[in-house]
Structure prediction request, 463 residues.
Amino acid sequence: MQRTATEEQQGELQLLRDAEARAARYIASVSEMPVFPDAAVRQQLARFDEPLPDSRRDATETLALLDEAGSPATTVSNGPRYFGFVIGATLPVAAAAQRLASAWDQCASSQMNSPVADKIEKVAARWLLEILDLPRESGVAFGTSATASTLVCLSVARRELLKKCGWDFDAMGLLGAPEIKVVVSELAHITVLKALRILGFGQARLIKAPVDSAGRIDPARLPALDGQTILCLQAGEVNTGSFDPFLPLIEKAKQAGAWVHVDGAFGLWARASPAKRGLTSGIEGADSWTTDGHKWLNTPYDGAAGICRDRNAMAAAMNSDAVYSTASTESQKNLGIEFSRSARGVPIWAALRTLGRAGVAELIEQHCSMAARIAKALPGLGFELLCEPVLNQVLFRYGTEAQTRELQQRVERSGKAWFGGTVWNGEPALRISVSSWRTSDQDIDALLNTLQAARGSLDRGNR
Prediction:
C-alpha cells in the first residue's frame, strides 16, 4: 500500500528523532568508551559486508545497523582522551549548526543558490580574517581540508607568477610555460607535498630548505629565490609544533619577488592567542595561508580554509561562472575548487560567534598549558622528552625502538587514551597532541597514569 504524504513526513521525522537519540547516546558515552576500538568490536564491522540489496529495506533497520555496528568501532576523537592527530572534538554549537545546515541541504555555491549560506559564509570569512589578523582584503575559500585548500592557494600562486612572466596560463596551460620553482622545508607536511604533486610539481624537482634542530627553516641556508619561485613555510611543524621564522624568510622572498604560502593547518590559530601570537610574527606578510576548523577550532569534519591576499587573483584562478550561473567574485564557487558544495563555513561561523575572541584564545592557551604539563611530567616518569613543547605537541620516546612502539600499543589496548607514533631524526617517536575542548585536567591525569602503567607493564614483561 502506498503511503500518503503525511505518513511519509511522519516517518521521516521519526527517523530523524531516532538518529538524534542515537547520536545523543553516543555523545553521552564518549568519556567511558575505549578511545580505540578493540579487535572484537572491529570484527563486528563485517556486518556491513552485505550484497547490494535488490529491493527496498527498512530505513530504521539501516540506521540501527549503522549505530549498533558502527558506533562502537569509532575512534573516539570526539572525546576527551584522544591525543593522536590534531583533531579537535566538535563543539556542541558547531555540531548543532551543522545538523541544521544539513536539514537545509543547500548547494552553497552562491547567493543565487543559497542566500543564507552566502551571507553566513561571508561573515565567517570576515571573522576568520579578523581573529587571525590577516589582510582584510583577502579571499577566503571554505573547503574540505588543508590538502584541498593548499591546492587552491598554490594554483593561484603558479598562475600569478606565470602572469608576471607574460604567460597566459588559462589559455596556454603548462606546455612551454616558464618554469616555476618550489622551495619547501625539509619537513614539509605531506598535504603540501601532495598538493604540489597533483599540480604537476615533480617531487624530485622540489628544492628543500634545510632546517634547524627544532624543524624550522634556517634563513641563513635558504635556497636562492626569484620571481618564479613559490616558497612554502610552516606554522606548526607536525611533530614539534615549531614555526618557521617568518620575518626574515618573508623579507627575503619579497625582495626576490617570490610568492609565499604558509601551511598553518593548526598552528595558524596561535595567532588568536595573545600568549602565543609572537610565534607568528611576520606571517601576515605572506601571500596565502591555509588552516583548518576541524583541528583546533573544534568544528566538525570537514571544514578548512584557503586564504589568498589577492582576492581578485583567487577568483580569477578559481572562477566557475557559466551562462546559467554567474556570481560575484566573493562567491564560494568562484574562490574554491567546488561548484557543488556544502556550507562548510556555517559551523566555523557558529564556533566563532559562540566562543568569541576570548573563548578561542582560552581554548588555545589551555591546550598549550596542558601540553606543557605533560612534557614536564614525562622525564620524571622515565620517558625521554625530545624537545620542549612550542604549542600543543609533545614529542617523546621510551627506551629502544621496539619499546617505543610497544608502549604506544599498550596504551592503545588499554582503551584509556590514544596517541600515535611518528619518526623524528630518523628514529621512532611518540606524539601527543592536545586539541579537544572536552579534555580536562583530570583527563591529563588519566593520560599520565596510563603512560606510567604501560611503562611498568612493559618493564615487567622484559624481565
User: Anything to note?
Assistant: The chain has a mean pLDDT of 96.
